[in-house]
Amino acid sequence: MMGAVGLMYLSLYLVLDIKPKDCGVITTHAFVLAEFAASLYKQLYVWLVRFEHRESFDASFCVMFITFLCTYIIYFNVERGNITPNRNLNVNTKELVSVVITGVGAFIISNISFITTKTPFSATENMLYVRTLVDFGGMLMLMTEMGRRNEMVLKNESTAINQLFQRQYEQYKLAVDNSEALRKEMHDMKHYVMALKNEDDPNRRAEVLEDMEQAIAIQESFMNTGNKVLDVILTTKSLQCQKKNITLNAMVDGDLLADIHVKDICSLFGNILDNAIEATQQVEDLEKRLITMSVHSRNQFIIIECENYSESANVRLRSSQKRRIFKSNNLPRTTKKIMSNMALVLNQSIRWQKSMAVL
Q1: 238 and 332 part of one domain
Q2: Global pTM exceeds 0.85
Q3: Residue that is last in its domain, among 108, 131, 150
Protein backbone atom coordinates (compact mmCIF):
# COMPACT_ATOMS: atom_id res chain seq x y z
CA MET A 1 0.00 0.00 0.00
CA MET A 2 2.84 2.39 0.83
CA GLY A 3 4.41 1.63 -2.53
CA ALA A 4 1.13 2.37 -4.30
CA VAL A 5 0.78 5.71 -2.50
CA GLY A 6 4.40 6.60 -3.29
CA LEU A 7 3.90 5.74 -6.95
CA MET A 8 0.72 7.82 -7.01
CA TYR A 9 2.56 10.78 -5.46
CA LEU A 10 5.45 10.51 -7.92
CA SER A 11 3.13 10.26 -10.91
CA LEU A 12 1.09 13.30 -9.88
CA TYR A 13 4.23 15.29 -9.06
CA LEU A 14 5.80 14.64 -12.46
CA VAL A 15 2.64 15.05 -14.52
CA LEU A 16 1.16 18.11 -12.80
CA ASP A 17 4.48 19.91 -12.13
CA ILE A 18 3.31 21.29 -8.77
CA LYS A 19 4.87 21.96 -5.39
CA PRO A 20 5.64 18.97 -3.12
CA LYS A 21 3.17 19.99 -0.40
CA ASP A 22 0.42 20.65 -2.93
CA CYS A 23 1.10 17.24 -4.43
CA GLY A 24 0.84 15.66 -0.97
CA VAL A 25 -2.66 17.12 -0.52
CA ILE A 26 -3.83 16.04 -3.97
CA THR A 27 -2.35 12.55 -3.46
CA THR A 28 -4.26 12.17 -0.19
CA HIS A 29 -7.51 13.22 -1.87
CA ALA A 30 -6.89 10.79 -4.74
CA PHE A 31 -6.03 7.93 -2.36
CA VAL A 32 -9.18 8.35 -0.24
CA LEU A 33 -11.28 8.68 -3.39
CA ALA A 34 -9.83 5.46 -4.80
CA GLU A 35 -10.38 3.70 -1.47
CA PHE A 36 -14.02 4.81 -1.41
CA ALA A 37 -14.60 3.72 -5.02
CA ALA A 38 -13.06 0.30 -4.30
CA SER A 39 -15.13 -0.23 -1.15
CA LEU A 40 -18.31 0.86 -2.93
CA TYR A 41 -17.60 -1.53 -5.80
CA LYS A 42 -17.00 -4.42 -3.41
CA GLN A 43 -20.20 -3.76 -1.52
CA LEU A 44 -22.32 -3.51 -4.69
CA TYR A 45 -20.78 -6.66 -6.15
CA VAL A 46 -21.39 -8.68 -2.98
CA TRP A 47 -24.97 -7.42 -2.92
CA LEU A 48 -25.40 -8.50 -6.58
CA VAL A 49 -23.93 -11.94 -5.92
CA ARG A 50 -26.34 -12.45 -3.03
CA PHE A 51 -29.26 -12.07 -5.43
CA GLU A 52 -27.84 -14.14 -8.31
CA HIS A 53 -26.27 -16.78 -6.04
CA ARG A 54 -23.24 -17.05 -8.31
CA GLU A 55 -20.06 -15.16 -9.10
CA SER A 56 -19.14 -14.00 -12.60
CA PHE A 57 -16.06 -12.24 -13.94
CA ASP A 58 -18.16 -10.34 -16.48
CA ALA A 59 -20.54 -9.14 -13.80
CA SER A 60 -17.63 -8.14 -11.55
CA PHE A 61 -15.99 -6.19 -14.36
CA CYS A 62 -19.23 -4.38 -15.30
CA VAL A 63 -19.98 -3.42 -11.70
CA MET A 64 -16.41 -2.23 -11.18
CA PHE A 65 -16.36 -0.21 -14.41
CA ILE A 66 -19.72 1.47 -13.79
CA THR A 67 -18.96 2.16 -10.09
CA PHE A 68 -15.53 3.69 -10.70
CA LEU A 69 -16.73 5.69 -13.71
CA CYS A 70 -19.76 7.17 -11.93
CA THR A 71 -17.80 7.85 -8.73
CA TYR A 72 -14.99 9.71 -10.54
CA ILE A 73 -17.38 11.71 -12.74
CA ILE A 74 -19.47 12.82 -9.76
CA TYR A 75 -16.36 13.66 -7.73
CA PHE A 76 -14.87 15.63 -10.62
CA ASN A 77 -17.98 17.77 -11.08
CA VAL A 78 -18.33 18.41 -7.34
CA GLU A 79 -14.67 19.03 -6.50
CA ARG A 80 -13.35 20.86 -9.59
CA GLY A 81 -14.33 24.23 -8.13
CA ASN A 82 -12.06 23.66 -5.12
CA ILE A 83 -8.87 23.13 -7.15
CA THR A 84 -8.13 25.94 -9.58
CA PRO A 85 -6.24 24.84 -12.71
CA ASN A 86 -2.92 26.49 -13.59
CA ARG A 87 -2.52 27.84 -10.07
CA ASN A 88 -0.68 26.45 -7.04
CA LEU A 89 -2.57 25.69 -3.86
CA ASN A 90 0.33 27.05 -1.75
CA VAL A 91 -0.44 24.62 1.07
CA ASN A 92 1.53 25.11 4.28
CA THR A 93 2.89 22.37 6.53
CA LYS A 94 0.04 22.59 9.04
CA GLU A 95 -2.59 22.16 6.34
CA LEU A 96 -0.69 19.25 4.79
CA VAL A 97 -0.44 17.44 8.14
CA SER A 98 -4.16 17.95 8.77
CA VAL A 99 -5.08 16.48 5.38
CA VAL A 100 -2.73 13.50 5.74
CA ILE A 101 -4.03 12.70 9.24
CA THR A 102 -7.61 12.78 7.94
CA GLY A 103 -6.79 10.48 5.02
CA VAL A 104 -4.71 8.02 7.05
CA GLY A 105 -7.31 7.96 9.83
CA ALA A 106 -10.12 7.18 7.40
CA PHE A 107 -8.07 4.38 5.82
CA ILE A 108 -7.12 2.77 9.13
CA ILE A 109 -10.60 2.87 10.66
CA SER A 110 -12.26 1.62 7.48
CA ASN A 111 -9.94 -1.40 7.14
CA ILE A 112 -9.14 -2.30 10.75
CA SER A 113 -12.10 -4.70 10.92
CA PHE A 114 -10.52 -6.89 8.24
CA ILE A 115 -7.38 -7.28 10.38
CA THR A 116 -8.84 -7.76 13.85
CA THR A 117 -12.21 -7.51 15.57
CA LYS A 118 -10.73 -6.98 19.02
CA THR A 119 -10.51 -3.18 18.92
CA PRO A 120 -13.17 -0.64 19.96
CA PHE A 121 -13.33 0.54 16.32
CA SER A 122 -13.77 -2.88 14.70
CA ALA A 123 -17.08 -4.04 13.26
CA THR A 124 -18.25 -7.63 13.72
CA GLU A 125 -21.06 -7.37 11.17
CA ASN A 126 -21.60 -5.47 7.92
CA MET A 127 -17.89 -4.76 7.59
CA LEU A 128 -18.24 -3.77 3.94
CA TYR A 129 -20.93 -1.26 4.83
CA VAL A 130 -18.80 0.22 7.62
CA ARG A 131 -15.80 0.44 5.31
CA THR A 132 -17.78 2.25 2.61
CA LEU A 133 -19.39 4.61 5.13
CA VAL A 134 -16.06 5.53 6.79
CA ASP A 135 -14.34 6.12 3.43
CA PHE A 136 -17.26 8.26 2.31
CA GLY A 137 -17.06 10.30 5.52
CA GLY A 138 -13.30 10.77 5.11
CA MET A 139 -13.78 11.93 1.53
CA LEU A 140 -16.45 14.43 2.60
CA MET A 141 -14.16 15.75 5.36
CA LEU A 142 -11.35 16.35 2.87
CA MET A 143 -13.70 18.06 0.42
CA THR A 144 -15.14 20.26 3.16
CA GLU A 145 -11.68 21.15 4.45
CA MET A 146 -10.53 22.11 0.96
CA GLY A 147 -13.66 24.20 0.36
CA ARG A 148 -13.23 25.99 3.68
CA ARG A 149 -9.59 26.70 2.91
CA ASN A 150 -10.49 28.16 -0.48
CA GLU A 151 -13.09 30.39 1.16
CA MET A 152 -10.44 31.76 3.52
CA VAL A 153 -8.02 32.32 0.63
CA LEU A 154 -10.67 34.15 -1.38
CA LYS A 155 -11.58 36.23 1.67
CA ASN A 156 -7.95 37.26 2.22
CA GLU A 157 -7.52 38.09 -1.47
CA SER A 158 -10.76 40.08 -1.44
CA THR A 159 -9.55 42.03 1.59
CA ALA A 160 -6.22 42.76 -0.12
CA ILE A 161 -7.96 43.88 -3.31
CA ASN A 162 -10.37 46.10 -1.37
CA GLN A 163 -7.42 47.72 0.39
CA LEU A 164 -5.78 48.26 -2.97
CA PHE A 165 -8.94 49.83 -4.38
CA GLN A 166 -9.09 52.10 -1.34
CA ARG A 167 -5.50 53.17 -1.97
CA GLN A 168 -6.31 53.75 -5.64
CA TYR A 169 -9.27 55.92 -4.64
CA GLU A 170 -7.12 57.87 -2.20
CA GLN A 171 -4.49 58.30 -4.91
CA TYR A 172 -7.19 59.48 -7.30
CA LYS A 173 -8.48 62.07 -4.82
CA LEU A 174 -4.94 63.20 -4.11
CA ALA A 175 -4.22 63.43 -7.82
CA VAL A 176 -7.34 65.54 -8.39
CA ASP A 177 -6.53 67.85 -5.51
CA ASN A 178 -2.91 68.31 -6.49
CA SER A 179 -3.71 68.67 -10.17
CA GLU A 180 -6.13 71.43 -9.39
CA ALA A 181 -3.62 73.08 -7.10
CA LEU A 182 -0.90 72.80 -9.72
CA ARG A 183 -3.19 74.17 -12.40
CA LYS A 184 -3.84 77.22 -10.29
CA GLU A 185 -0.14 77.58 -9.60
CA MET A 186 0.72 77.36 -13.29
CA HIS A 187 -2.04 79.81 -14.12
CA ASP A 188 -0.58 82.31 -11.69
CA MET A 189 3.01 81.59 -12.66
CA LYS A 190 3.39 84.84 -14.58
CA HIS A 191 2.15 86.79 -11.61
CA TYR A 192 4.50 84.93 -9.29
CA VAL A 193 7.46 85.66 -11.53
CA MET A 194 6.58 89.34 -11.75
CA ALA A 195 6.04 89.50 -8.01
CA LEU A 196 9.35 87.78 -7.32
CA LYS A 197 11.20 90.25 -9.55
CA ASN A 198 9.77 93.12 -7.56
CA GLU A 199 10.03 91.42 -4.17
CA ASP A 200 12.77 92.87 -2.01
CA ASP A 201 12.21 90.66 1.03
CA PRO A 202 14.41 87.55 0.56
CA ASN A 203 12.44 85.56 3.12
CA ARG A 204 9.17 86.18 1.32
CA ARG A 205 10.77 85.30 -2.00
CA ALA A 206 12.13 82.02 -0.62
CA GLU A 207 8.73 81.14 0.86
CA VAL A 208 6.93 81.56 -2.47
CA LEU A 209 9.56 79.54 -4.33
CA GLU A 210 9.35 76.74 -1.75
CA ASP A 211 5.55 76.53 -2.12
CA MET A 212 5.88 76.29 -5.88
CA GLU A 213 8.56 73.60 -5.65
CA GLN A 214 6.43 71.53 -3.27
CA ALA A 215 3.41 71.64 -5.58
CA ILE A 216 5.51 70.57 -8.55
CA ALA A 217 7.26 67.82 -6.54
CA ILE A 218 3.94 66.30 -5.44
CA GLN A 219 2.73 66.20 -9.02
CA GLU A 220 5.96 64.56 -10.15
CA SER A 221 5.60 61.83 -7.53
CA PHE A 222 2.70 60.20 -9.39
CA MET A 223 3.95 57.15 -11.27
CA ASN A 224 2.71 55.80 -14.59
CA THR A 225 4.38 52.46 -15.27
CA GLY A 226 1.61 50.74 -17.23
CA ASN A 227 0.60 48.60 -14.23
CA LYS A 228 -2.15 50.12 -12.09
CA VAL A 229 -1.24 48.12 -8.99
CA LEU A 230 2.42 49.09 -9.17
CA ASP A 231 1.47 52.71 -9.83
CA VAL A 232 -0.34 52.84 -6.48
CA ILE A 233 2.58 51.29 -4.61
CA LEU A 234 5.25 53.48 -6.20
CA THR A 235 3.20 56.64 -5.77
CA THR A 236 2.57 55.88 -2.10
CA LYS A 237 6.24 55.12 -1.45
CA SER A 238 7.33 58.16 -3.44
CA LEU A 239 5.26 60.43 -1.20
CA GLN A 240 6.80 58.75 1.85
CA CYS A 241 10.26 59.36 0.42
CA GLN A 242 9.53 63.05 -0.12
CA LYS A 243 8.60 63.46 3.54
CA LYS A 244 11.92 61.88 4.54
CA ASN A 245 14.05 63.80 2.02
CA ILE A 246 14.68 60.67 -0.05
CA THR A 247 14.82 60.68 -3.84
CA LEU A 248 13.08 57.70 -5.46
CA ASN A 249 13.86 57.02 -9.11
CA ALA A 250 11.88 54.26 -10.84
CA MET A 251 12.47 52.91 -14.34
CA VAL A 252 9.78 50.26 -14.61
CA ASP A 253 8.12 48.45 -17.48
CA GLY A 254 4.79 47.65 -15.82
CA ASP A 255 3.56 45.51 -18.70
CA LEU A 256 6.06 42.80 -17.69
CA LEU A 257 4.12 42.28 -14.43
CA ALA A 258 0.73 41.70 -16.08
CA ASP A 259 0.73 37.95 -15.31
CA ILE A 260 1.77 38.33 -11.66
CA HIS A 261 -0.95 38.21 -9.00
CA VAL A 262 -1.95 41.48 -7.30
CA LYS A 263 -1.06 40.12 -3.86
CA ASP A 264 2.42 39.08 -5.01
CA ILE A 265 3.12 42.49 -6.55
CA CYS A 266 2.08 44.29 -3.38
CA SER A 267 4.12 41.97 -1.17
CA LEU A 268 7.28 41.98 -3.30
CA PHE A 269 7.55 45.68 -4.13
CA GLY A 270 6.18 46.79 -0.77
CA ASN A 271 8.83 44.81 1.12
CA ILE A 272 11.67 45.88 -1.18
CA LEU A 273 10.83 49.58 -0.93
CA ASP A 274 10.10 49.47 2.80
CA ASN A 275 13.53 47.95 3.45
CA ALA A 276 15.21 50.48 1.17
CA ILE A 277 13.44 53.43 2.80
CA GLU A 278 14.27 52.16 6.29
CA ALA A 279 17.96 51.89 5.42
CA THR A 280 18.19 55.12 3.42
CA GLN A 281 16.50 57.38 5.97
CA GLN A 282 19.33 56.63 8.42
CA VAL A 283 21.95 58.03 6.03
CA GLU A 284 22.99 61.44 7.35
CA ASP A 285 24.25 62.80 4.02
CA LEU A 286 21.12 64.06 2.22
CA GLU A 287 22.84 63.77 -1.15
CA LYS A 288 23.16 60.03 -0.60
CA ARG A 289 19.49 59.54 0.27
CA LEU A 290 18.75 57.96 -3.08
CA ILE A 291 16.76 54.87 -4.06
CA THR A 292 16.85 53.56 -7.63
CA MET A 293 14.47 50.85 -8.79
CA SER A 294 14.26 49.21 -12.20
CA VAL A 295 12.17 46.41 -13.72
CA HIS A 296 13.24 44.97 -17.07
CA SER A 297 13.41 41.67 -18.91
CA ARG A 298 16.50 39.69 -19.79
CA ASN A 299 16.54 36.28 -21.50
CA GLN A 300 12.85 35.67 -20.73
CA PHE A 301 13.38 36.56 -17.06
CA ILE A 302 11.93 39.56 -15.23
CA ILE A 303 14.71 41.39 -13.35
CA ILE A 304 13.77 43.63 -10.41
CA GLU A 305 16.64 45.74 -9.05
CA CYS A 306 16.61 48.16 -6.14
CA GLU A 307 19.72 50.12 -5.10
CA ASN A 308 20.25 52.44 -2.14
CA TYR A 309 22.88 53.69 0.28
CA SER A 310 23.05 52.38 3.83
CA GLU A 311 25.12 53.31 6.86
CA SER A 312 27.75 50.63 7.51
CA ALA A 313 26.94 50.55 11.23
CA ASN A 314 23.35 49.60 10.49
CA VAL A 315 24.20 46.50 8.44
CA ARG A 316 27.07 45.10 10.52
CA LEU A 317 26.08 41.68 11.88
CA ARG A 318 27.32 39.63 14.80
CA SER A 319 28.49 36.07 14.20
CA SER A 320 25.29 34.62 15.64
CA GLN A 321 23.22 36.85 13.35
CA LYS A 322 25.27 35.81 10.33
CA ARG A 323 24.63 32.15 11.07
CA ARG A 324 20.92 32.84 11.44
CA ILE A 325 20.56 35.04 8.35
CA PHE A 326 23.06 33.55 5.89
CA LYS A 327 23.25 29.99 4.62
CA SER A 328 26.41 27.95 4.12
CA ASN A 329 26.76 29.25 0.55
CA ASN A 330 26.81 32.87 1.86
CA LEU A 331 23.38 33.62 0.35
CA PRO A 332 20.63 35.06 2.57
CA ARG A 333 18.06 32.76 4.06
CA THR A 334 14.56 33.63 2.84
CA THR A 335 10.99 32.39 3.23
CA LYS A 336 9.97 34.09 -0.01
CA LYS A 337 8.66 31.93 -2.86
CA ILE A 338 10.65 34.11 -5.27
CA MET A 339 14.36 33.38 -5.53
CA SER A 340 16.39 36.50 -4.75
CA ASN A 341 20.01 37.45 -4.24
CA MET A 342 21.53 40.46 -2.50
CA ALA A 343 24.99 41.88 -3.10
CA LEU A 344 26.75 44.40 -0.82
CA VAL A 345 29.61 46.59 -2.12
CA LEU A 346 31.79 48.07 0.63
CA ASN A 347 33.14 51.61 0.86
CA GLN A 348 34.96 53.22 3.76
CA SER A 349 31.95 54.54 5.70
CA ILE A 350 28.95 53.99 3.44
CA ARG A 351 27.64 50.79 1.88
CA TRP A 352 25.85 50.76 -1.44
CA GLN A 353 23.17 48.14 -1.09
CA LYS A 354 21.66 46.37 -4.10
CA SER A 355 18.71 43.96 -4.05
CA MET A 356 17.83 41.84 -7.06
CA ALA A 357 14.83 39.56 -7.63
CA VAL A 358 14.61 37.26 -10.63
CA LEU A 359 11.11 36.08 -11.64
Answers
A1: yes
A2: no
A3: 150
